[in-house]
Design brief:
The complex is a heterodimer of chains A (406) and B (256). Chain A has 406 residues and is α+β, with helices and mostly antiparallel strands. Chain A folds into two domains: 197 residues, no CATH class; 194 residues, no CATH class. Chain A is 55% helix and 20% strand. A six-stranded mixed beta barrel of chain A has the order 3-4-9-6-8-7. In chain A, strands 2-10 form a two-stranded antiparallel ribbon. In chain A, a hairpin with a 2-residue loop joins β3 and β4. In chain A, α10 runs parallel beside α14. The two termini of chain A are 29 Å apart. The mean pLDDT of chain A is 86. By secondary structure, chain B is of the alpha+beta class. Chain B has one domain: outer membrane lipoprotein receptor (LolB), chain A (Clam). Chain B has three helices and 13 strands; from the N terminus they run αββββββαβββββββα. Chain B has a 13-stranded antiparallel sheet, covered by helices on one side. In chain B, a hairpin with a 7-residue loop joins β3 and β4. The radius of gyration of chain B is 22 Å and the shape is elongated. Chain B starts with a helix and ends with a helix. The model of chain B has no long low-confidence stretch (mean pLDDT 85). Classes of the chains: A alpha+beta (406), B alpha+beta (256). At the A-B interface, β7 and β8 of A face loops of B.
Chain lengths: 406, 256
């Protein structure tokens, strides 16, 4: 009875209902788009950084992270690879041998990170071959050549086909010294990597370090960034915990995680202001509604309608309008985010160059994670319901005689 | 009258204390002599040695073979003969310079002074220990602390404190030198905070190349349990003539 009354009431003044519903609709839509945009940008940034450096998850020999020496490597283990690949959330596994060495040529020398890689795997997972700016990409695992960061090459004044000398510490105190032909130069986004990284076929690196068949880490790429923690726990359980350690990029690169956290605090403030503005818009329409219907309320109370029931009816009206707005908002949000994920926004001009300088793709991605839709909608819904208590409160204090005479 | 008595007393005191002073300075001189004698015993005018170096770690160990030549304090050369991967690597000390020839990259690297205190080829010895850039005789002040028994042998215990001018990382080094054969049997190295860092034990006294030497030297870093490095002298020939031209960067590349 009350529901029906509320339903009929909201359609009595269509224009007012539509205005209120529209403001809820825009509130939900804006909140969803904003969160989706920031989350999408973060995910993309993480993906960019993580895929060239650590991977989302890394598996090491236990104790490697605390003492990153070549003596803490582990033997390539098919059984481990199989266990990892069996998990449906694991998209790729990338074996790597990461060491530090002194790179030199003629008069100059510099400390570098030497990354022994499986060239085909890296090509498949991070399109490493697309980042080559001069020369060629490493052909296969036995290729006796290296690819180095463009920044490093210019600091050492090296060109394609020059010889790079690497000097480092080998496995079990052996010496690691070798010469390599520079096959190509690569432009990596992160400046630090661009100035420090030398890519080498895994087998060459293992031979140079006297560490045949040994790896420092297996990087794991996963299907969705949101599955990070769940997958970490799952992998920890499925592999030999006495021998291996599983670490997420958040543990390995806390600075990136902290940057995102700090940055998103700023976004929380902006979205807080958004909620505030939305609330006042809703409040305005509610005030107007009370003012317009004062006479009606007075008469209803005068003919015996209980104040409590009247307040409840007003609450129901508000909830219905908010639900309507939210529903449309979600629908609109889904459509826009879907459209934008299919046709992502590409930057052009200067902004594009700035982004590429930092090695982040000049594309704005929108995250279509369901969590965003649910939380943003719930927040707006709760806000509008809280606001709807105000007309109820007004009704409870209403003096029928004054209201009728108004 | 009183005056002459006072003078006599002064002279008497001087005469009485004189021997004491000379005894003290003699003792310092003695400490230096002991160290010098021990140093000469293992060094000789020239030497040519076959050595084996074992690196011992809690989970693994590794063995290398080398040939070493030396001439006086100024020249020494070490050639790695096995394992195959490091074969042909040469270290040369020429007066105050240290060079490292690495055949696999065809580079001759001059080690900067800053690298002298770093590990030599992954062992517990430093580059400085290897080339003995610092002289244990002229770069330290010596003081005899007394006598102690090390591996059932009567030894002089001598404290050596580096002279301010010497490039030595230790605050002090205490050595135990056998009082019969004048061979250094033990050495303890202390860092600038006075903490014991390394202990070096020398044992297995053998007569090789016409001299008595300690044929086994073990280095134990105190803070790394289970780690040590052992050097074994398989053979050593003393006082064969070696030309100064032998110790050149050019010769490093053709050494066999």
């Amino acid at each position: 009875m009350l529901l029906k009354l509320a339903w009929l009431n909201i359609w009595r003044n269509k224009r007012r209902t539509i205005i209120t519903a529209t403001s809820v609709f825009f509130a939900v839509l804006l909140a969803i788009l904003f969160r989706s945009l920031t989350d999408g940008v973060y995910d993309n940034m993480i993906h960019n950084v993580v895929s060239y450096s650590s991977g989302y998850l890394q598996i090491h020999q236990k104790g490697y992270w605390d003492e990153q020496s070549i003596d803490n490597t582990f033997e390539e283990d098919d059984q481990l690879f199989q266990v990892l690949l069996k998990n449906p959330k694991v998209k790729h596994i990338i074996p790597r041998l990461q060491t530090f060495a002194l790179a030199s040529c003629a008069e100059k020398s510099k400390g570098v990170i030497v990354l022994g890689i499986d060239p085909d795997k890296e090509k498949e997972v991070n399109n490493l071959h697309d980042k080559i700016v001069a020369g060629d990409y490493i052909k296969n695992i036995n290729d006796n050549a290296v690819v180095l960061g463009e920044g490093l090459a210019s600091q050492l004044r090296l060109k394609v086909n020059d010889t790079l000398v690497l000097l480092g510490q080998g496995y079990h105190a052996s010496s690691a010294a070798a010469k390599f032909r520079i096959k190509g130069l690569i432009k990596l986004g992160a400046l630090e990597l661009n100035n420090k990284l030398v890519y080498m076929p895994l087998q060459q690196s293992q031979y140079m370090h006297g560490a045949e068949n040994r790896l420092t880490s297996v990087s794991v790429m996963l299907d969705r960034a949101a599955n990070l923690e769940a997958l970490k726990h799952a992998l920890q359980k499925s592999i030999n915990a006495d021998k291996y350690e599983v670490m997420s990029w958040k543990e390995m690169m806390p600075e990136l995680d902290q940057f995102i956290e700090a940055d998103s605090t700023g976004h929380y403030i902006i979205i807080g202001i958004l909620y505030f503005v939305i609330s006042f818009g809703l409040f305005g329409t509610l005030l107007m509604m009370i003012f317009e219907r004062k006479h009606e309320f007075g008469i209803l109370i005068a003919i015996g309608m209980k104040k409590r029931l009247l307040a409840l009816m007003l609450l129901l009206e508000s909830v219905m309008i908010s639900l309507l707005g939210c529903f449309l908002g979600i629908l609109g949000g889904i459509l826009i985010v879907k459209w934008l994920t299919i046709h992502p926004v590409h930057f052009t001009g200067e902004l594009k160059e700035v982004y590429e300088e930092y090695g982040i793709e000049s594309i704005i991605y929108f995250s279509s994670h369901e969590k965003i839709f649910i939380t943003q909608t719930l927040i707006i819904l709760i806000l509008s319901i809280l606001l709807a208590f105000y007309p109820g409160y007004k009704v409870m204090k209403l003096k029928p005689v004054e209201a009728i005479n108004n | 009258m009183k005056h002459t008595q006072f003078l006599k007393l002064i002279i008497g005191i001087i005469i009485f204390t004189m021997p004491l002073i000379t005894v003290f300075s003699q003792q310092d001189l003695l400490a230096k002599d002991i160290v010098k004698k021990a140093d000469d015993n293992i060094r000789g005018k020239t030497s040519e040695a076959d050595i084996t170096v074992k690196i011992i770690r809690p989970t693994w160990s590794r063995e290398m073979n080398m040939k070493a030549w030396s001439k006086g304090d100024d020249y020494s050369m070490i050639l790695v003969t096995s394992p195959a991967k490091e074969k042909g690597t040469v270290f040369l000390k020429r007066i105050k310079e240290v060079w490292n020839w690495i055949p696999s990259i065809e580079r001759n690297i001059k080690l900067p002074p800053s690298m002298m205190s770093q590990s030599w080829m992954g062992t517990d010895f430093t580059n400085d220990d290897l080339v003995k850039e610092a002289s244990s005789v002229s770069d330290y002040d010596h003081k005899l602390l007394g006598k102690e028994t090390v591996s059932k042998k009567d030894c002089y215990k001598i404290e050596m404190i580096p002279k301010p001018s010497a490039a030595i990382v230790w605050e002090k080094v205490i050595v135990w030198i056998d009082s019969v054969d004048f061979l250094q049997l033990k050495a303890a190295f202390y860092d600038e905070d006075g903490e014991l860092v390394n202990i070096m034990n020398s044992s297995e006294v053998k007569e090789i190349g016409g001299r008595k030497i300690t044929s086994k030297i073990e280095m134990f870093p105190v803070d790394k349990e289970g780690n040590s490095t052992v050097i074994i002298y398989n053979n050593i020939i003393f006082d064969i003539p070696i030309n100064d031209n032998f110790f050149t960067t050019r010769n490093m590349k053709q050494l066999k």
